[in-house]
TrEMBL record:
Gene3D superfamilies: 3.10.20.30, [2Fe-2S]-binding domain (1.10.150.120). Its EC number is 1.2.7.4. GO terms for molecular function: 2 iron, 2 sulfur cluster binding; anaerobic carbon-monoxide dehydrogenase activity; metal ion binding. Pathway: Alkaloid degradation; nicotine degradation. SUPFAM superfamilies: 2Fe-2S ferredoxin-like, CO dehydrogenase ISP C-domain like. Transmembrane segments: none annotated. InterPro entries: 2Fe-2S-bd (IPR002888), 2Fe-2S-bd_dom_sf (IPR036884), 2Fe-2S_ferredoxin-like_sf (IPR036010), 2Fe-2S_ferredoxin-type (IPR001041), Beta-grasp_dom_sf (IPR012675), Diverse_Oxidoreductases (IPR051452). Keywords: 2Fe-2S, Iron, Iron-sulfur, Metal-binding, Oxidoreductase. This is Carbon-monoxide dehydrogenase small subunit. Residues 6-82 form the 2Fe-2S ferredoxin-type domain. Pfam families: Fer2, Fer2_2.
């Protein structure tokens, strides 16, 4: 017996999107498998690592803990939606590149979404605010120094 699906209409990266999904489909899986937006990564699947962080109406959320049906009618921004209209990298993306704030890159989409929201709310954060702001995102490669430098750089350019 097939699991019933429900219509989900939402705006993703500025584009109205529609698809059907079971009530239990996680937003991370909906974005990746139903909408083909594979920039959102799934790490721990428990909301601990932050790899799956996207912006829901501008606020960071763990897409691996959010059911897709609950975001119907809302606006989602994924890492694919952070770049400018011509595809030019955002200030945060550029700063991460310039400061070498990534190594394997698996955690990067979640960091980019988190930092984008952090700098919107706190345009000139202190080091303590930066550390608090990124504390929900885990990186196994970088040691965080370059990530913190990238946030500082992005704040200086914003």
């Amino acid at each position: 017996m097939s699991e019933p699906t429900f219509p989900i209409e939402l705006t993703v990266n500025g584009v109205l999107r529609e698809a059907r999904a079971p009530a239990r489909r996680l937003l991370s899986d909906f974005l990746r498998h139903d909408l083909g937006l594979t920039g959102t990564h799934v790490g721990c699947e428990h909301g601990v690592c932050g790899c799956c962080t996207v912006l829901l109406d501008g606020d960071p959320v763990r897409s691996c803990l959010t059911f897709a049906v609950t975001v119907a009618g809302h606006e989602i921004t994924t890492v694919e939606g952070l770049a400018g209209p011509g595809g030019e990298p955002s200030t945060v993306q550029r700063a991460f590149h310039e400061e070498h704030a990534l190594q394997c890159g698996f955690c990067t989409p979640g960091f980019l979404c988190t930092v984008t929201a952090l700098l919107r709310d706190t345009p000139h954060p202190t080091d303590a605010e930066i550390l608090e702001g990124i504390s929900g995102n885990l990186c196994r490669c970088t040691g965080y120094q370059n990530i913190v430098r990238a946030v500082r750089r992005a704040a200086g350019e914003a």
